[in-house]
Design brief:
By secondary structure, this protein is of the alpha/beta class. It has a single domain, classed as Rossmann fold. Helix content is about 35%, strand content about 25%. The protein has nine helices and eleven strands. A nine-stranded mixed sheet has the order 4-3-2-5-6-8-7-1-9, with helices on both faces. β5, α6 and β6 form a beta-alpha-beta unit. The longest helix is centred in the N-terminal third of the chain and has 14 residues. It starts with a strand and ends with a strand. The structure holds S-adenosylmethionine.
Length: about 240
């Protein structure tokens, strides 16, 4: 696995283009816009219920905005991608990820972006359900692979979910961006993992390899308090 001093937007530019892609968890469509611009998919499925969820494990997550704000976000996404929706490049699914899964065949998607509910259980279920929808030489990227102090307050369990899924599924952990809210890349085949690793080493300066991750080490996003805010750093 490579620790990459880059951002999720720059990764998009490097990853294979022109595919059929799904984004789980869309909010206002900021990253959807980046996917369209930087990765140029032939089709982008946007999956989000745009619904406030009254449940104790999700109450602290700042994405869980009130019902009226959810409707505003949904309407803003429709307006933002009107041309792409009319042209058939963007398909909007106002639905929970587990319910929307029936609209996809196994192996249909080239890659997915996982950024829906961030509890360990929900993130794991998204990986387990949509990992099958990705073609055999496809990949998954996802947001918020962090367990720093802020993430724990928001009940994020992405690190736990991804590590468990990688250990169980045979997906290879390829890369992690070096950000306060990192993005991970996992590949379904060893050959694709090798190709993506090669691509990243050639294009991202100063990558660091962590061998046999997560099989042989854990990840902790450590933090030090500043006068204002925090600095975080990955520890393996
Ligand atoms: C962090 S935001 C997404 C941000 C977006 N990917 C971006 O980077 O611009 C998380 C979103 O996940 C959505 N969400 C929550 N539970 C979900 C579920 N079960 N299925 C799909 N989306 C879900 C929320 O409504 C929220 O809009």
């Amino acid at each position: 696995m490579l620790v990459c001093p880059t951002t999720r937007a720059k990764l998009l530019h490097l990853l294979p283009q022109g595919g059929e892609v799904a984004e789980i968890g869309v909010a206002e469509g900021d990253f959807s816009q980046e996917i369209l611009h930087e990765n140029k998919p032939k089709c982008l499925h946007l999956i989000d219920p745009w619904e406030h969820q009254d449940r104790s494990d999700y109450v602290n997550d700042p994405s869980n905005v009130a019902a009226g704000a959810q409707d505003d976000r949904f309407n803003a996404v429709l307006a933002r991608f009107r041309a792409e929706i009319d042209g058939g490049t963007v398909k909007v699914h106002r639905d929970y990820s587990q319910d929307a899964a029936i609209f996809f065949r196994d192996g249909q998607l080239d890659w997915i972006y996982v950024d829906g509910m961030h509890t360990a259980e929900a993130a794991y279920n998204d990986l387990a359900t949509y990992g099958r929808k990705v073609r055999d030489d496809g990949f998954i990227i996802g947001h918020d692979y962090t367990n720093h102090v802020q993430a724990r307050q928001w009940n994020f369990g992405v690190v736990e979910a991804v590590n468990r899924y990688v250990r169980e599924s045979g997906y290879e952990f390829v890369a992690l961006t070096m950000e306060a809210f990192p993005t991970y890349v996992i590949a379904k085949s060893k050959e694709l993992a090798r190709q993506l690793t090669d691509l990243l080493v050639r294009n991202v300066p100063y990558v660091v390899e962590i061998r046999d991750f997560p099989q042989r080490s854990d990840f902790e996003h450590k933090s030090v308090a500043l006068k204002k805010g925090w600095m975080v750093y990955p520890s393996f």
